[in-house]
Amino acid sequence: MTAKLIDGKAIAASVRAAVKEGVAAFTARTGVRPGLTVVLVGENPASQVYVRNKGKAATEAGFLSRQIDLPASTSEAELLNLVARLNADDTVHGILVQLPLPKQIDESKVIEAIDPAKDVDGFHPVNAGRLFTGGASFLPCTPYGILTMLDHEKVELKGKHAVVVGRSNIVGKPVAILLLSRHATVTICHSRTVDLPSVVRTGDVVVAAVGRAEMIRGSWIKPGAVVIDVGMNRNAAGKLCGDVAFDEATEVAGLISPVPGGVGPMTIAMLLQNTLEAASRRTAGR
Ligand code: GUN
Questions:
Q1: CA-based end-to-end distance of the chain
Q2: Closest ligand 1 atom to the C-alpha of 47?
Q3: Is 104 a catalytic residue?
Q4: What is the mean pLDDT of the segment spanning 224-249?
Q5: Per the omega criterion (within 30 degrees of 0), is the bond before 260 cis?
């Protein structure tokens, strides 16, 4: 058996097209272009690429897209000052401070300084808390993208066993809560999990978010399972690869997201969706 591929690029393109229409309608209705400001501190090359791609996608969708570059020597107080100015700026509907930040800056302090109503990353504790309690919030973009992919593929989650490998605040923990909200039975695994292969083998849905190249082998996958690979790694040969050994897993799984072209493109699409949502909430009733 060969698994069906989930085409993240195509699903992301349809989300982006819908957001673009929403942005045009919003602008026509309010006379205001929804704005996204991305802040980059320092010169991390991977962050530079991510930020450039976010800005390009935002511009293409019709947002007022701004990027603020600060030197690596920026102090925590300077960054907090900038965040306060962006919070007060009515032309800014979404704020994204690219992580990681230089070590003299406390990331959680910066995240907590962002107005939760402009926190389009969904990282603020208020939004994380609302995810737990089920209220309206901004969902973190990668988990939101995963859920959107699963919905697009009409994957039934109710009553299924979902195994999430990885417990980060950005992916593992929030995706587990989202799957739970769809009535899956959820197991969260991590580096201390005993006999990880046996646990993964019980998963009808497996979400791999560990950040280790090709760690999850085909022999760990239950036949017919849905496999979502969040990894973005380089293998020994320098090739971009996920956390799942794709060539093996594709022989066993029923549905699988590839790397590249799976979860990655979804993340930016959901950022745009969140930014449009932030603008719409801000001007609701106008
Ligand atoms: N660094 C890597 N991924 C992300 C993300 O989704 N948002 C932010 N702010 N920083 C990141």
A1: 54
A2: 1
A3: no
A4: 95
A5: yes
Ligand 1 site-directed mutation target among 41, 96, 105, 233, most atoms within 8 Å of CB: 96
Measured CA to CA, the distance from residue 148 to residue 142 in angstroms comes to: 10
Task: Read off the pLDDT of residues 121-152 as tens digits, 9 standing for 90 and up.
Answer: 999 999 999 999 998 889 999 999 999 999 99
DSSP state of 128: H
Atom of ligand 1 nearest to the CA of 170: 6
Q: What residue's CA is closest to ligand 1, atom 7?
A: 98
Q: Where are the domains of the chain?
A: 30-115, 141-264
Average pLDDT, the chain: 97
> From the CB of 98, is ligand 1 less than 6 Å away?
yes
> Per the residue annotation, which of 4, 7, 20, 54 is the catalytic one?
54
Ligand 1 pocket, residue 121 CB under 6 Å? yes
Please check whether residue 94 is in contact with residue 37, taking contact to mean a CB–CB distance below 8 angstroms: yes
Select 30-115's CATH number: 3.40.50.720, 3.40.50.10860, 3.40.190.10, 1.10.1040.10: 3.40.50.10860
Contact 211, 172 (CB under 8 A): no
**Mean pLDDT in residue range 109-119:** 98
pLDDT of residue 236: 87
pLDDT per position as a tens digit, 69-94: 999 999 999 999 999 999 999 999 99
Residue 97 CA: nearest ligand 1 atom is 9
Whether 54 is catalytic is: yes
CATH number, span 141-264: 3.40.50.720
Q: What percent of the chain has pLDDT over 90?
A: 95
Tell whether ligand 1 has an atom less than 6 A from the beta carbon of residue 37. no
Average pLDDT over residues 221-236: 96
CATH fold match for the domains 30-115 and 141-264 = yes
SS3 180: helix
